[in-house]
Structure formats: C-alpha cells, structure tokens
Design a protein that fits this description.
four-stranded antiparallel sheet; about 40% helix
C-alpha cells in the first residue's frame, strides 16, 4: 500500500569473511559494526550526487524507480546501474576491541563516549580513538543496557544542562550512571526488581521500563519508585482491548513453537511512541500505556507472529518479524494499520538513533541488520507518502499520518488535511454513512455547494450533478468498470490507482488469508488494518431515492443549520456585513472568521473578491436548500424558517409552496421578504373567493386547493396583514384596505383603529380622505378615535369632524344619511353639540358660516359657537327668544359665571368682592340675561317671570345700581322682597367675614411679636433674647482670625463669622 521506506544495503560481508554482525551503531557519517569475534569495524557512508538524504521532510525526492510490494516480500529499490546506492568505505577495524562478541553498542554524543556490551561487561571507550577508558566492574553478568540524553533545567538555578544516563541490567539488578555536561557524576545508583531483567527502554528522561521474565515494571530514578505494569501476556486482555482477551492467551502460532520444541520464551519488548505513549509487547500481545503506567485502553496490534524487535521511527511503529525470513513491518501507531512490509533476509536486529535533544524526526534514518548485511532504511518524503495514500484511496491513513506529522515537515499541511478530509467525507456519503459524512463536512467547514451537489435535483436544484449516466446507474445496469470489479478482476494494479476509473470510490473490505488466522478478524473499521482493502465501486451506487434520500436529507438539515448559524453571526438581517467582520480574512486568529472564509471557498492566495456579495450568495444557497430539505423531509419545520430573517430564493419558495398548496406559509414568507404586494394580491384572491369557491367542484385537485385556502377566505387575514405594515407602506395599505372595508366595515376599520403603533402613526389626513371616499360614517368613526382616544389636537381634524357631523345630520333630512331611528339621530346630534362645547381647536367663525340662522336645528349650535366667540348676548338671545328655553339660558349663565370666578381666583385668590361695589371690571352675565328679560329687543315682550327668578336666585351676584335701573317702576315692591332680603344677607356675610379675618390676623401678630421678644414658642433659637459669649479663644469659622473686638454676624444655628465677609 505504501512505500514509506526503501532498504539500501550499506554493509555486506564478503563470502569468505567468516565473521558475523552482532551489533550496529550509526552516528554522523559513521557506521560501527560489532562482530562475533570481538572486532569492531568502522565504516564511512559516502553519498552519491544522485541521492539526497530523505529524512522525510521538506519535499525532498529520492531517485527511485520501484515500489515496495504490499504482499510481505518487498523488493530492494535499485536502478539498473546501482549508482544511487549509498556506498561505504571501511575506515578501520579494531580486531582486539573485545575478547568476546560485541552484543550491543551505544554512544553518548555530548561526552564523546562509546558504550559496548561484551562478555557480560559494559565498557566505556573513547568515541574518537575507540580506546578503552573503563570497564564497569559492577556490571559483571550484564545482559543489556540503555542510554538516553535529555536537556534538564537545574532545580535551583534554572540553567539548562545536558544529562545523559546509562542503565545496565545485571540479573535482577539495574545500575545507573549519569553524566551532566560531559562530566560523570560520582554517585552510582542501584535498584533491584523481582526477577531477571530481559530488556530496558527509556521512556522519558527519568523513567525506565524494564521487561522482566514474567512482567514489566516502570522505574522512576528520581523517586526510586518501582511500578508494576499490567503488561500483555497469558493473564488476558485489559479494558479497551480486543474482546478476544490476550489473543490465544499467549499460545499462538508462534508461541506454540516455543512450548513444543522447547525454545526460549519470547523476549519482552518496550518502546516509546509519540509524546506520552509507550508500547509493551510480549509474544503477539501488546499493551499501550502512558508515562504514569496507566492503560490507554487501546486495542492490540494485530500481529500474526511474535516480533523479535520493536521500535519507533517518527511517525511509524516498526516491528521486525521472523528471523528465518526477515520481514520489517511498518505500521501507523494510531490506527495500527499495516502500511508496508519490507523483506530483509535473516534480519535480526534494528538500530534506531535516539532522537534525544533534537527534533522528533531526527531518528528517521535507522538501520536493520542480519549477521551478514546492514541495511539503511531510507524514507520517502512525507508529501510523497501522503500523495500515494490518497491516490490509492487510503484516506484514513493519510489523515492519521498528517495529524501525527509536524507542520514544518509538509507543504501546506492544513490545506492538504482539509482536502483529504473532504474527499473522505464524499466517500462516506457514497457509502450511505450520511451522519459521519456530514459531521466531517461540518468539521472542515466544507463549502455548502460541495455538499449540496451530492443530492438530487429535488434538493440541490441547479447544483445537482444528475445526468444520463446516473440515470443508467439507477436502472441497475453496471458499467464496464463495475462488471470488471464484480467478476473479481480487480487486481493489484487497480489497488495502486491504475484502474483509470473516474467514478466515486468506496473503501471496501477484502480480508487477506493472514487475517483469517487471527483470533479476532478485521472488522473493516477505519482503525483496523487496511491491508487487503481495495478501492471499488459498489454495485448499489444509485441515485438517492426513497428512504435513503430522506435519511440523507435529515442529516443535511443539521449541516445546513450549522452553516446558517455561522453566517448569521457575520451578516445582518438585511444582508449587509456586520461592522466587526468587514476586515475578515483567512489569516485571522478568529475561529469563526476562518470557518466562514473556508465555507466561502476563499484561500489565502485570493485577494480579489467581494466578501459581502459572496456571503449573501452563499447564505441564499444555504437557506434555499434548507427550505427544500424541510419541504421534503419535515414540512412542519418550513414555516419556522419564514418567521425569522432568511435569504431564501423567493422564486423557488413561491413555486414550491404554491405547488403544495401551503398558502399560509407562502403569505408568511412573502411578508418576511417584504414582498407585500404579491402577498396582498394573494390574500385578496383567496379572500374574495368565498362565494365562488363555495360551489361543488368535481375536480379533486380543486377541492384540495379549496380546503387549503378556506383559512384565507374573508377579510380577516388581509386586515391582520395590513395592521403589521409600517406607515411608510401607506399607499399599499390604502390600496388593499378598500375591499375589507366594503366587505366587513367593522373588521376593516381595525386596520386604522387597532391599538398598535402602526395604526396610530399612519398619516391621518390621507386615511381620512380615503375613508371619506368610501363612507362618511367610517370617516367620523376614525376621527372620533383619533381625537377622543389618541387626543389629537390638530385643528383641521377637529374642524373636519364637526363638518362631518353637520353633514350627516343634514343628510338625514335629505335621505343621504340613514340612521336606524330618531334615537341614533339624537345621539349624533348630542355628539355634535358636545364637540362644539368641549373642543377649542376648531374655528368658530367657519362653523358659524355653515350654520343656517333660520334653521331651528342650528339654533343651539349657533348659541354654542357664539359662546366660543365670547358673544354671550347673542348666545343668550338665541336661548331666550328663539329656543325660549329659560333653564338653558340660566344654565349658560351659571357656566360662564363659574368660569369667570375660577379665572379671577387664579389671579387674586384672597380678594373677596362685595356685591355692593359700584363698578365692576366687566358686566355680569346675569345682568345681561336680566336686561334681555326686562329690556328685550324690538319685537319681543318683556319676560317678568324669568326675570324675577333670576333676581331671586342670583340677585346677590347682580350690581345693585344696574339691577334696580332695569326693574320697571310699575313692578310691585312686595314682589322684590326676596331680592332685597338676599342682597342684605349677602352684604352682612361679607362684613362679618372681614371682621373675623381681622381678629385672626391680630392674634397672629401678637403671637409673632411674643416669639421674637421673649423666646416663646417651639423654636427658641429664632428669638432676639439669645446671646453668644465671645472669648479670646473664639475664632472666625472662615478666616480663622481671632474675633476680639471685631464686628461679627451670628446665624440662627449659632454659627458666627467676621462681619466683613458678607459684603
């Protein structure tokens, strides 16, 4: 599947050389080989011009014309002439380096030391001269050792230093040596474990994992703590591992050979993976833990044979299998998928340089060795590996590899990762895994058109990619490519991407023979081994229909709702861009802004684009598609989309809603889009169809439409719609308000009389003119509402209401205005008179011109108008001589007199006027009435009876001289007795009142004087009898000057100041 590494021989022993390679070590351009005869050979690696050291990053290419096979027998990559092979020169051979075979080699770069294990002892040599410096005597019987170097900050000073540590296993003991900044520390630590140590592996700068005969332990060299690890073995699996427990419980295909033939037990292995993870392996069982020894709950590595060695070369997990054949397996440490199998005949050991203090990928160039050959595993560039995985359809592996690699090692990692996830989401969609697909689309902020295009025209509209080919596929006739795959002819070349098929590819499971031997078969999940998986096109790939389509649409609704929420955060309801997002770009740190830019499909290289227009266009696409999805899968949710701000395409929505008969939703949509004319025309169409649609219909479709539109019949819905229109739509309101007013005046008037802000702020003059054109009674009703309830003081409206009242009253006589009876007529007349009395905003002169002086119906209105004009005599003449209603005349005088008294009291509230005053500021209204009774105009007789009643009831309010002059001499005095009695009593009342007031004022004066002179009363400080003592210590409260003999001023609160401060 992948050619991550290429094996290139570095060292090949000649056939006549009887020695065997027991250990290898590489550093710089040197390769050291420890032989079984105790000799040490030092080689120098020479690079040819045609070869560039990969290291996996920077996009460097290897000159390579071949690929490793995926069947477990990878061939060596060479060209015809072999010029690109790395070549080594033997620089030196130290024959007596050791008396025994050199089992293990390592070096400490900072201290320039070479560490070797031979003959059961660990020895330290000079790295440059290879001379023995010291043999660690305490290591007698050593079986293995491990070296690590790390940068450690000093606890006290914080100064960083390089600390190298050497751990040596001697039976049950582990010995530790340390070098700090190239200096060997004098202290040597020793720890004892429960059984013999078989392997050692540093997992951090201070923690070591030791593989024992029966278990694993983790040792913290700082605290000395030894932690038992629940490692893999016959005890069974751990939580989170395969249900098969320990997979054959340690008695697998490989382990049976140990028991049956009497071979040694498998060596416990351990290696550190990425930061914070450690792999423990024994036989075919594995266990993943963290640096604290806690299980990570991951499933086991699906090995079919026990590895002889494991390692980690960033970012791959390596396992060397079957020393008889020599197979190096390269796996993804996250998914545990087998990526590459490299055939290395008789290979028995691996040497992976420790990354220590450099970057994590510094250990890329590792070595694999047999007893005769040393290979260097050279890596292709990571970009090439990613491209190969994508080309062959292994998208999960490509995504996993991208996640593990550092950004610096790849070209534009974020964009590549997003593109691969996009392709994976499309494949998941083709596999009918709609939820997973749409979740991935959401995660990468895929442009909405990419997702919508996957759906048929019913949902995607013009974006749909349905064509004749898709139609043929739906009929069930497979294409040539499908027939070939279904007949089992999908060969290995097809897996390498050479099938030439352009149809969508789906990852299908094709189990290999090896997988059948495993205790737990591969379940085909993304995390399982992908070996044997090929890219095929399933025969069931048809257009989405039926249940599949509905399920896919349900998932699409969630995706579109999420996109819509993101667009709403940057767009105003009117489609304009919010201020804080006007400078939005791809490189911003705002997560929302980056997501929106990805949804728009804008890359960092794009500079020429209109952000607002693009956002509006995409928002329209999203909302329109969401509407189609609602209408197909969940029609009940379509209405909720119209009640909020949306950017749906009106043509699509109108066509669909009209087609399905959902006229109520259509009206709400048109209102939300401010397409009021279209909505009102539809409402008028359905509202006026009450009679015609009530007949029986034979057409079933028409009957259905009639049932749906019955909710819209009549003016009610139109009235409600017009009430919600703003005043600036007055032309539209008046245009469509006419038919509701004519159909149902009471309901239609709610457009203008409703207790809403829109109704109260309509242009009243235009509404009035409109209503007058329909019916004067409606205009009167509107004016009564505006003036009576809204308290409008506009003179023109008051004048118009009075004119309309008068016209309606006159029209009753002529038959133009029809009242239900005399009661209603009297009610209207009463409202007219009340308006004349109470309103002060109309023009009395204009109203007087409209009132016929000879019409008896206008007598009283004229009297009221004269009163408004201040012409009281003319008003009283109408009451006395034309109406001959003396009670109304007297009531009129009472009202005028009361108004005059209130005005006088406001000016001089304490003045009491005596009725005997000889002169007044203005003649009394009662005197005017009395003069009309006793001295009527020409043609009228005196009215002595009403005159005497006025004298009796209001004589005290009449000036005596003027009243007596009007009384005729022939009138008997006995009839005036009540007048004189009333006058005398009124005069006495005024006199007595004045005496009482004078006495009260005198008492108040005496009380005030006593308080000032003697201090009587509740406030003793406000008297003249108080005193203040001035001493030499008293100072002024303002200038702080000693008072002495200065003139002072004392306030009522006994605060005193130097007197000159008050001038």
């Amino acid at each position: 599947m992948l050619s991550a590494f290429t094996a290139r021989p570095l060292i090949e022993l000649k056939p006549r050389d009887k020695s065997r390679i027991e250990s290898v070590l590489a550093y710089g351009d040197r390769v050291l080989a420890g032989l079984n005869n105790g000799s040490l050979r030092i080689y120098r690696v020479n690079e040819k011009e045609g070869y560039k050291d990969g290291g996996g990053g920077g996009g460097e290419e290897h000159i390579d014309d071949g690929e490793g096979r995926e069947n477990g027998n990878a061939e060596t990559h060479t060209d015809g002439g072999g010029d690109v092979k790395a070549k080594t020169d033997l620089l030196r051979e130290i024959e007596r380096f050791s008396r025994y075979k050199i089992e293990q080699l390592a070096y400490i770069k900072e201290s320039k030391l070479l560490i070797s294990l031979a003959g059961g002892y660990v020895s330290i040599h000079d790295l440059q001269t290879y001379e023995l410096q010291e043999q660690l005597v305490r290591t007698k019987g050593a079986s293995t050792f491990a070296v690590t170097s790390n940068i450690v900050n000093d606890v006290e000073t914080g100064v960083p230093s390089i600390v190298s540590r050497l751990a040596v296993a001697v039976k049950r003991r582990i010995l530790f040596w340390s070098w700090r900044d190239m200096e060997l520390e004098s202290e040597t630590r020793e720890m004892t474990v429960v059984s013999g140590v078989k392997s050692l592996a540093w997992v951090s700068g201070t923690k070591l994992v030791a593989g024992l005969s029966s278990s694993f332990v983790m040792i913290d060299i700082q605290t000395g703590a030894v932690t038992d690890l629940a490692g893999p073995g016959s005890i069974g699996g751990l939580p989170g591992q395969d249900a098969g427990g320990s997979r054959l419980s340690g008695v697998g295909v490989a382990s049976m050979s140990y028991i049956g033939i009497g071979g040694s037990a498998p060596k416990p292995l351990a290696t550190r993976l990425k930061e914070g993870q450690v792999l423990l392996a024994k036989d075919i069982n594995t266990h993943f833990i963290d640096l604290e020894g806690n299980s990570l709950g991951r499933r086991q590595v699906p090995w079919s044979h026990a590895p002889v060695d494991v390692g980690y070369s960033y970012p791959f997990l390596l396992a060397l299998h079957d020393s008889s054949k020599g197979v190096l397996e390269v796996r993804n440490p996250e998914t545990l998928s087998l990526l590459q199998s490299v055939s290395l005949p008789a290979a028995t050991l691996m040497h992976i340089p420790q990354p220590n203090i450099s970057l994590a990928h510094a250990g890329k160039g590792f070595l694999v060795a047999s007893d005769r050959v040393v290979w260097r595993m050279e890596a292709l560039s990571y970009d090439t590996q990613i491209d190969a995985l994508v080309e062959k359809g292994y998208l999960d592996e490509a995504i996993s590899l991208l996640d593990m690699l550092e950004d610096a090692l790849l070209r534009d990692k974020p964009s590549r990762l997003r593109q691969i996830k996009l392709e994976k989401a499309q494949n998941l969609f083709a596999q009918r895994k709609y939820q997973d697909s749409l979740d991935l689309f959401t995660e990468i902020s895929a442009p909405p058109e990419v997702v919508i295009r996957l759906y048929p025209r019913l949902i995607a509209g013009d974006l749909s990619i349905e064509d004749d080919t898709a139609t043929e596929s739906e009929t069930g006739s497979p294409t040539d490519g499908q027939s070939k795959q279904l007949n089992g002819t999908h060969n290995n070349a097809d897996a390498n991407g050479s099938d030439g098929s352009s149809s969508p590819k789906v990852i299908a499971q094709a189990p290999s023979v090896a997988s059948l031997l495993r205790a737990k078969a591969d379940d085909g999940s993304d995390a399982g081994s992908i070996r044997g998986k090929n890219t095929v096109e399933l025969p069931g790939e048809k257009r989405l229909v039926g249940k599949d389509l509905k399920t896919a649409v349900w998932r699409l609704q969630g995706y579109l709702a999420g996109v819509r929420r993101r667009f709403q955060r940057v767009l105003n309801p009117d489609g304009s861009l919010k201020t804080e997002y006007m400078q939005m770009n791809v490189t911003t740190d705002d997560e929302l802004a980056v997501s929106v830019m990805r949804l728009l499909g804008i890359s960092p290289d794009d500079t020429d684009y209109d952000l607002s227009d693009m956002l509006l266009e995409k928002a329209r696409l999203v909302d329109t598609t969401l509407f189609r999805a609602h209408m197909y899968a969940t029609p009940s949710l379509a209405g909720s989309l119209f009640r909020i701000a949306n950017f749906c395409d009106p043509n699509v929505v109108m066509e669909k809603l009209d087609e399905t008969g959902r006229h109520n939703d259509l009206i709400e949509f048109l209102y939300g889009k401010k397409m009021h004319r279209q909505a009102l025309e539809l409402l008028r169409k359905f509202g006026q169809a009450e009679e015609t649609d009530g007949e029986d219909k034979e057409d079933e479709g028409e009957a259905k439409d009639d049932t749906v539109s019955s909710q819209l019949r009549g003016p009610k819905r139109t009235v409600g719609y017009l009430q919600n229109l703003a005043p600036d739509q007055i032309d539209l309101i008046l245009e469509f308000a006419e038919w509701p007013l004519r159909a149902d005046p009471d309901m239609g008037m709610e457009i203008f009389l409703a207790d809403t802000e829109n109704a109260e702020t309509l242009p009243r003059q235009r509404v009035l003119e409109f209503l007058e054109g329909i019916d004067r009674l409606l205009a009167v009703r509107y004016l009564e509402h505006v003036i009576g309830e809204l308290n409008d003081m506009t003179p023109a409206l008051h004048q118009r209401l009075l004119v309309l009242y008068l016209d309606c009253l006159h029209g009753h006589k002529s038959g133009e205005t029809k009242f239900t009876g005399e009661t209603e007529y009297a009610e209207w007349r009463g409202k007219f008179l009340e308006m004349l009395k109470t309103s002060s905003q109309y023009s009395p002169a204009k109203m007087l011109d409209r009132l016929d002086r000879d019409d008896p119906e206008c007598y009283e209105p004229r009297a009221i108008v004269f009163s408004k004009m201040g012409q009281h005599r003319q008003a009283l003449e109408i009451y006395v001589f034309k109406l001959e209603d003396y009670s109304k005349a007297e009531e009129y005088c009472n009202q005028v007199h009361l108004a005059e008294d209130i005005g006088a009291a406001q000016v001089i509230p304490s003045q009491r006027t005596a009725p005997t005053d000889a002169a007044e500021a203005q003649p009394s209204i009662y005197l005017t009435l009395l003069s009309l009774y006793l001295s009527p105009p020409h043609g009228h007789e005196p009215q002595y009876g009403p005159a005497l009643d006025i004298l009796a009831r209001h004589g005290s309010r009449l000036p005596a001289n003027s009243a007596l002059e009007l009384i005729p001499e022939t009138l008997p005095v006995r009839e005036l007795e009540f007048y004189f009695t009333g006058r005398i009593r009124a005069a006495n009342s005024v006199f007595n009142e004045s005496r009482i007031v004078a006495q009260l004022e005198q008492v108040q004066n005496v009380k005030t004087q006593a308080q000032l002179l003697t201090g009587e009363g509740p406030d003793r400080r406000a008297t003249r009898s108080r005193h203040v003592t001035i001493t030499e210590q008293r100072i002024c409260g303002v200038c702080h000057k000693r008072l002495g003999s200065s003139v002072i001023n004392i306030f009522p609160e006994y605060v005193f100041f130097v007197f000159f401060f008050f001038f």
